[in-house]
Amino acid sequence: MRHAQIIASGSYAPDRVLKNEWFNELLGEDVDTWLRQNLTIEERRWMTDDQTTSDLCVEAGRRALEMSNLSPADIDLLIIATDTPDFISPSTASVVQNKMGLTNATSFDTNTACAGFPTAFTLANGLIAAEDRFKKVMVMGAYGMSRFLNLKDKKTVTLFADGAGAVVLEPTENDQQGFLSSDLRTKGEYHKHMGIYTGAAADPSTEEKVSDRQHCLKFVEKFPKELNPTMWSDMIRTVCERAGADVSDVKKIFITQININQIWETLDILGLPHETAPTIMDKFGYTGSAAIPMVFDESFRHDGVSEGDLTVFIGSGGGLHFGACAYRF
């Protein structure tokens, strides 16, 4: 049966670097010490005034095309996972399709927040399996959250950053390689805990609301601290079981870069060494939907995976949405 295999990847973060010390001055207190000790974050990248989420996608996509030795016209399908689109409508995917010259690609966005990349990867795999016409597919995760941050809110402004990551997929019928299984879950009871709640149909933007920064990302309620490690570890076990493999066989886990301690706790639950999950939040902060393809791209380009390696892509984000995929190289 046809399923997806990765043939190339690419990632991009803006040139504008903001170190922790910049936030010390902005907020009038030492946030650097806490960020380093608890999250390992030292710096992050924000878009410049003339950049948008689609621009980040274009750069990541071009790097993936370069690795694949494909032309823009070779791409049949583009899926972009983002919750910071250029517009409410039209889709960011249509903007990127035009900017990149992907003239033969149909396109759409998906929004499961920071679980977006494994969700989009699962959708792409299903379409490759169902439709012979999809021969080269590009999947992106993109994040431009700096545009939705309240500079006075230290809970969000120091953590979130911008970036994009992309992979190029093609079909394979080798059942020993490629996309193996997935697990997608939603816990909608947490949808009011964190999000951008102004700007759409439920609470349209007004000039007054924008000037008061009400369109910004908000943490409204705390999530149970055990929620991510419990869900992540259970989902990793699930995708391994569905793939006919054991968790102990997993060589790499490409996981959302929100909290280093939750990543380590997840690995401890599974009995896996901490180096199983590479991290990039020290230099890029939290890049949401882009975090998983960005950390994967860094590993893929520097021989971080080998043929035969069992890997897992997993993330969670506002909604709450959770997504995981098992993949063998």
Provide tags for this entry.
single chain; 329 residues; alpha/beta; Peroxisomal Thiolase, Chain A, domain 1; 2 domains; five-stranded mixed β-sheet; four-stranded mixed β-sheet; 13 strands; 33% helix; globular
Rg on CA atoms, Å: 19 Å
User: How many extended strands?
Assistant: 13
Order of helices and strands: EEHHEHEHEHEHEEEHEHEHHHEE
**Fourth-level CATH superfamily of the largest domain:** Thiolase/Chalcone synthase
Mean pLDDT: 94
Helix content: 25-40%
Low-confidence stretches: none
Counting DSSP H or I runs of 4 or more residues, the number of helices is 11
Distance between the termini: 17 Å
Number of domains in the coordinates? Answer: 2
- The name of the CATH architecture of the largest domain is 3-Layer(aba) Sandwich
The name of the CATH topology of the largest domain is Peroxisomal Thiolase, Chain A, domain 1
Biggest β-sheet: count, sense, barrel? 5 strands, mixed
Shape: globular
